[in-house]
Amino acid sequence: MAANYWASTQRRHWLFSREKLADIREALWEKDKVAHSQFPLPDQRLLNIYFNQQLIKLGKRMSTRQQAIATAQVYLKRFYTKNEIRQTSPYLVLTTAFYLACKMEECPQHIRFVVGEARGLWPEFITPDVAKLGECEFALISEMSSQLIVHHPYRTLSELETELSLATEEVALAWSVINDHYLTDLPLLHPPHVIAIMAIFLAVVFKPAHPVTYPVTAQSALSGSLMSEGSGLQMLAALSDKTGSGPPPKIQKLIGWLAESEVDIKAVIECTQELVSLYEVWEQYSEKNCKELLGRMVKSKNLDK
Amino acid sequence: MGAIESVESRRPGGYTSKVRVRDRYHIVGFISSGTYGRVYKAVGKNGKKGEFAIKKFKPDKEGETIQYTGLSQSAIREMALCTELSHANVVQLEEIILEDKCIFMVFEYTEHDLLQIIHHHTQPQRHAIPASMVRSILFQLLNGLLYLHTNWVLHRDLKPANILVTSSGAIRIGDLGLARLFYKPLNSLFSGDKVVVTIWYRAPELLMGSRHYTPAVDMWAVGCIFAELLSLRPIFKGEEAKMDSKKTVPFQRNQMTKIVEILGLPRKESWPGLASMPEYSQLQSLAAHRQPSQYHRGSNLEGWYQSCLKNGGYSSTSSAGTPGTDGFDLLSRMLEYDPTKRITAEQALEHPYFTIGGPISGNCFEGIEGKYPHRRVTQDDNDIRTGSLPGTKRSGLPDDSLMRASKRLKE
Fold it and tell me: Which residue in chain B is spatially nearest to A139 when comparing CA positions?
């Protein structure tokens, strides 16, 4: 429930092991091998970056808050564990996820307005008929078994802000790391508090020399130091075998807190690695490429009709 | 993966339900209707056992054909919350079926509700609800409410019609159509729905135009329900002032007057936030019109309570028993003007009214002679028998307020 992640549908129904998630995707692929070879798509994370950018564009025009965008991204992930992307119109699905997430996060937008805005952005993929969105909403809710309440790491971050005496800059950077984790499978693999702690850890350890003022993504701020140094990762790894030579004093407090808490340190490390590999793959990102491949798929298969 | 099959068999993005209501349930009759749609009684089919209440949300019609127009925010909230919640004193959801552009929420069937039980005690003449039954009802209701509040859910529409009672005497809080999460909402709670809670059960801070309301609004409603269980009448039975032509929310003068008549005027000294309430000047004008004797009079809740016990025949020697002085103390703490001082669900459950005086049954009918009539189920789909009574119909803005805003513009 809202206060109780442990009893939530998110934990009971939407938390997968890596192996399970791989099996699910394998099964989807088995069902439609032909489409897979006919319509190659970029790495899922690159697609996620593209979808996220589209959602931000859509949200910006309606001044939507980040949390609704985050919820929409989680809805997309959940939906695509049950449906092969090549059988859907991704633009319709992401617009619907956005529309539904806004209602759930208490910042509702009228359906006509959302369709109008989406048409403004992707006129060739969104029809003016609001019934399409309404129908897709049924599909989305049904595939998610009406489990629409999403727990986000942002809350843990704000709860720990004071406890760990985080600087404004660190909170800003951790917030951006959380934004970035929606581009990976992490929301389906780990509970939100583990993600939040990973984000705080990265922010504290890799606090960039130049102040960041709430960047949309932490990629630019972090990727350099993450990939070149790796010292933070070693430090984090040292936490799991408590024989390490001891961290610098500035993160003493964080480490003390982590050691006392019952947080799964291994999971935190795994999340960090996932972020590192996201920032690596990000180098290959091309908006144009994603747009073209998706466009070709949607048009050839008449998915927008 | 039925969805994929349906996607393949139809057009991409098309939606076909995997489950059909008629394959799983046999509709026995019609129970009630509201702004959201209709509720039907049903029994399970094809091996599915039990009785159910199916709430069908009506889709919007455009001309003759039913269209997908996007679900109301109220429906979305109720679906999401009911799916997430699980507690012995909150109505149990069986499943949700999305079919033919409609939503069917299938709940366990409850034979009674508090409105019907209170009504039964006024027929053929008034006879009090036994004190032990009131105590069990209230305890279970608070237990369910504590669960909701602990999970950051405000119910916002507690009233006798929404408090369901199973045939084995278990209380279930129902109708979460106005409920919502209150953990750091993105928009203030005020901006979503301008009016909440049926007028008779509406907390004074809401009547005073508060924008930052809290779980205390639900506790006020519980206080009103407690009083109504004892007196068999709504304690503050005001008349609702309708929205004016500009669609602004008016000050509910009559409702506030009903409260003041029993509790006296709220005072800045005991309710420090009062003077900063949006409707404070309205309250002052209300005070100016009152007789000086009434103006200076404090709360008369105790007088109300004593005459209620007397009229109901509640006493330690009567068969009805008595809620006693502890009952009064608890009631007065629920009907506290200042929401920050009002008793919480957690504190109420620890109150002497419950902790002293023996065990409380989880079956509110335990030891009660006589039976309550079954819920009325009709074959007439157009029955709007209770549809327009203030106690049974929600008076808030249950649906997507933006939808209303656009309607308003058209008007």
Answer: B15
Q: State the nearest Cα–Cα gap between A95 and chain B, in angstroms.
A: 12
Task: Give the mean model confidence (pLDDT) for residues A31-58.
Answer: 91
Look at A108-117, B170-179, B319-328 and tell me which has the smallest mean pLDDT: B170-179
Higher pLDDT, residue B287 or B14 = B287
Does B312 score more than 90 pLDDT? yes
Longest dimension (CA), chain A: 64
User: What count of Cα atoms within 13 Å lies in the side-chain half-sphere of residue B319?
Assistant: 6
Task: Flag whether B390 is in a domain.
Answer: no
- What CATH number does residue A166 fall under? 1.10.472
Query: Residue B91 falls within a domain, yes or no?
Result: no
Same domain, A203 and A89: no
A98 and A171 share a domain?
Answer: no
- Provide the whole-model pTM: 0.85
Active site residues of B: 157
B96-109 pLDDT, tens digit each: 999 888 899 999 99
Residue B258 lies inside a defined structural domain of this protein: yes
Closest-approach residue (CA) in chain B for A91? B13
φ, ψ dihedrals at B62, nearest 5°: -115, 105
Picking from A106, A109, A305, the nearest residue to B186 by CB comes out as A106
Range of the domain at B127: 113-355
Interface test with B, best of A14, A86, A105, A106 (most B CBs within 10 A): A106
Same domain, A277 and A296: no
The residue type found at B152 is: W
Q: Does one domain contain both A277 and A291?
A: no
The per-residue pLDDT for B290 is: 67
Indicate the number of domains in chain B: 1
Tell me whether residues B68 and A130 touch, CB distance under 8 A: yes
Amino acid at A63: S
Tell me the C-alpha to C-alpha distance, in Å, between residue B57 and each of A260, B32, B236.
50, 12, 31
Tens of pLDDT, residues A78-133 = 999 999 999 999 999 999 999 999 999 888 899 999 999 999 999 999 999 999 99
Locate tokens 């098309």: which residue? Answer: B14
Spell out a b/e string for A29-52, using b for 16 or more CB atoms within 10 Å of the CB, else e: eeebeebeeebebbebbbbbbbbb
**Domain residue limits at A113:** 14-150+287-300
Domain count, chain A: 2
Query: Is A61 part of a structural domain of the chain?
Result: yes
Contact across the interface for A31 and B11, Cβ inside 8 Å: no
Are A144 and A209 in a shared domain?
no
* A175/A107 same-domain check: no
Q: What is the pLDDT of residue B73?
A: 87
Q: What is the CATH number of the domain that holds B236?
A: 1.10.510.10
Q: Is residue B119 part of a domain?
A: yes
Task: Count Cβ–Cβ pairs < 8 Å, chain A vs chain B.
Answer: 146
HEC string of B303-371 equals: HHHHHHHHHHCCCCCCCCCCCHHHHHHHHHHHCCCCCCCCCCHHHHHCCHHHHCCCCCCCCCCCCCCCC
